[in-house]
Design goal:
The structure is a homodimer. Helices cover about 55% and strands about 10% of the residues of chain A. By secondary structure, chain A is an alpha/beta fold.
Amino acid sequence: MKIPRSHPRYESLIRRERLVRAWKAGIVVPEGLIAHGRGEAWDYLFGEGTSAPALVAEKAAAAHLVRAKRPVISVNGNVAALAPKEIVRLAKAIPARIEVNLFHRTEARVRRIVRTLTRHGGTGVLGTGGDARIPHLDSRRALTHRAGIYGADVVVVPLEDGDRTEALVRMGKTVIAIDLNPLSRTSQMASIPVVDELTRAVLNIDEFVRELRRDPEEAARIVKSYKKADNLRAMYSFLGWRLRSLLRGRPARRKTRD
Amino acid sequence: MKIPRSHPRYESLIRRERLVRAWKAGIVVPEGLIAHGRGEAWDYLFGEGTSAPALVAEKAAAAHLVRAKRPVISVNGNVAALAPKEIVRLAKAIPARIEVNLFHRTEARVRRIVRTLTRHGGTGVLGTGGDARIPHLDSRRALTHRAGIYGADVVVVPLEDGDRTEALVRMGKTVIAIDLNPLSRTSQMASIPVVDELTRAVLNIDEFVRELRRDPEEAARIVKSYKKADNLRAMYSFLGWRLRSLLRGRPARRKTRD
């Protein structure tokens, strides 16, 4: 199906199509499709754009990443389906290691995702095997790499589950989550919860990384001034405002998500 | 995977498992999994329970159904996966005809869904073939039965898309939608939008049908007194209140949906 660029829901439909294609290629699991739907509903509530508080979190994320000693980006099936190019580009800009880490793990799926990222220019992508375990997680979900997430000081976990986010925080890492649900345990647990759609978030962080790499003082200032609780509070205010305007604005015949 | 009944998210996890199983059986399509995720996010916002305004709409739906001359329940893949037994039971209580009607239609999938409903006790389930077309819909999505949706005066469309809901309303039918998004075009277009989770909605409507069948005067009174705009307004107030309490209540470490 060809979706015209002029379609009001173009971006959202393209994302959906990418996921279904990746599911057919054995990269995305059915649970990932359901999770994507949850994200779609939240993104609709947020107006399908980056909010001001999300932009603040994205800049803080970038500041932590440029100052990190061993930054790592964690990639799962949905992330590889939706933004492989953008993830690889961000990894090179930082520069950071990429590790494929799956909730519904099979080695075959890990290999397919590593291949996808490599095809998009990723180098040294970690994933298969694993030589370390994250404490407090059941065995299959704990598997990771010393050269990757296990040894990282700053980890980006886009579309991650709450347990793993919590386990990584407990290990003392700075955990940057990307999750559209501001009330999820992932968003509550992360050191820097970025409440934004994946591709938008990665592109914004990428831009801030390129800016802050040239300005270490500004990066240091941002790391110091970012306050998670304040940022989440601003996010909740924004969400409340959005919902009020959605409910007020709802004309009986306007096109909205079905 | 065995999910213990004591799990705080038991119902939601069972539903997810049912959908994934039905997807493996060729009953649910990937787009249906994504749509289910959107519903999950809304249901989470609603507190995963039937709201007072939803209950009012469910009673109005039951009143219309017991007074209908040719009531029909439309069933798609997600509906067959999530509540086949409940749908058949409701159809018998009214009594109403069931017609399988798919957005992503293939005759093979229609047949599989007819078989599922028949296995759960459904009789005379319509679906394959079709001998009429709903005006204003593209050809494949328009196909329907004279003895079913085409000839119905009251139609229940659970988890339906906006275009078809609108087309049925334009045909002069009383359209009862079941959709968790109160802002969707389906909810805006339907004669009676029921904003509730599918299984809960069907069980509640079933109970009201059994009650109102014995009380035609009360059914007539309810049909007269139900006002869609008032009901939706009450739904929006409820949603605003829920969101406010979610945002207020969010302790940093509480378990919420990931």
